[in-house]
Amino acid sequence: MKSLVLLLCLAQLCGCHSVPHGPVLGYREPACDDPETEQAALAAVDYINRHLPHGYKHILNQIDSVKVWPRRPTGEVFDLEIDTLETTCHVLDPTPLANCSVRQLKEHAVEGDCDFNVLKQNGQFSVLSAKCDSSPDSAEDVHKVCPDCPLLAPLNDSRVVHAVEAALATFNAQKSGSYFQLVEISRAQFVPLPASVSVEFAVAATDCVAKEVVDPAKCNLLAEKQYGFCKGMVTENVAGGEDVAVTCTVFQTQPVLPQPQPDGAEAGPLTPAQGSAGPALSPAGLPAASLVVGPRAVAAPPIPPPVHPAHYDLRHAFSGVASVESASGETFHVGKTPKVAQPSVPAPEGPVPVVRPCPGRIRYFKI
């Protein structure tokens, strides 16, 4: 009888040691085109466009991979890799992203490559960390599609700067209202036939009257910001001069939003909306002016610094990369996924074909 009792106790003891302590934690891998995954990716793209200080809005092109981690005490973190494409809408343009056209291959398209951690909590998505960069399509690929199409030109090239100045002067000469100052040179291309420089740039209204300006340096931006976006073409003519053509779209005036103040304090200047990365810094190190596009506040891009590449890289859109804590207590960063052991799942004895539901579909085209 004593032997039987001892045997039962040993069996119970072995059974206790065979059960792992606590829940088995790990990640799940939904399909890249799963509706929930796409919601997280769209939240990431919205984050990009809300924090871009320069250039053009981006749109989702493909979801490359996704892992979903449980997060203590509630919620889940979507670890995403996504590809985006540049649109033709400038970041100052209040046009909804859904109504923006994608920059086509023959126009020298630009692709973004991003890593995101997106928190889903109580049915809402919010970005925890982000890291992006972007690059134009290669010259070889552009010329495969369109052998005679122009490529992107450096934004600080003297010919580009001259074309922008000429186009802006022409625009102001045609106006009877406010004088507009240059905010940013956004895009440029050298067109071979006829020899021309094509430019795109952002402008802002000042307190000066266009036809009365003597010294543009004395003009100040309006308190209620009004921005515009221009496309210009400066073409050499046979007489040795140049022809200038320009069209500008002036956006609706953006009202100054009062800053929330403690009781008894006076209203202060506009501050960025909750969740933004804070005001952008100008080359001189001073905060740039702020504006509201639609329901949000963003930092107005400063005048370009002395040296520029051919496009505004998404790498400079975010001030830093935050870290996220997983449910297992490990710390991981965007672009680095920890390995999680799952002892409850036995390893297969032979090779097993695995069908990965990623990467997802290409919505437009692949660069």
TrEMBL record:
Entry annotated with the keyword Signal: yes
SUPFAM superfamilies documented for this protein: Cystatin/monellin (SSF54403)
Domain of life: Eukaryota
Main location class: secreted
Lineage: Eukaryota, Metazoa, Chordata, Craniata, Vertebrata
Signal peptide extent: 1-18
DNA-binding in keyword set: no
Alphabetically ordered keywords of this record: Disulfide bond, Glycoprotein, Phosphoprotein, Repeat, Secreted, Signal
Pfam families given in the database record: Cystatin
GO biological process, one term: negative regulation of bone mineralization
The protein's name in its UniProt record: Alpha-2-HS-glycoprotein
Region (Disordered): 257-280
Localisation: Secreted
Taxonomic source organism: Balaenoptera musculus (Blue whale)
InterPro entries linked to this entry: Cystatin_dom (IPR000010), Cystatin_Fetuin_A (IPR025760), Cystatin_sf (IPR046350), Kininogen_Fetuin_HRG (IPR050735), Prot_inh_fetuin_CS (IPR001363)
Residue span(s) of domain Cystatin fetuin-A-type: 27-133, 144-256
GO molecular function annotation: cysteine-type endopeptidase inhibitor activity
PROSITE patterns: CYSTATIN_FETUIN_A, FETUIN_1, FETUIN_2
Gene Ontology cellular-component terms listed: blood microparticle; extracellular matrix; Golgi apparatus
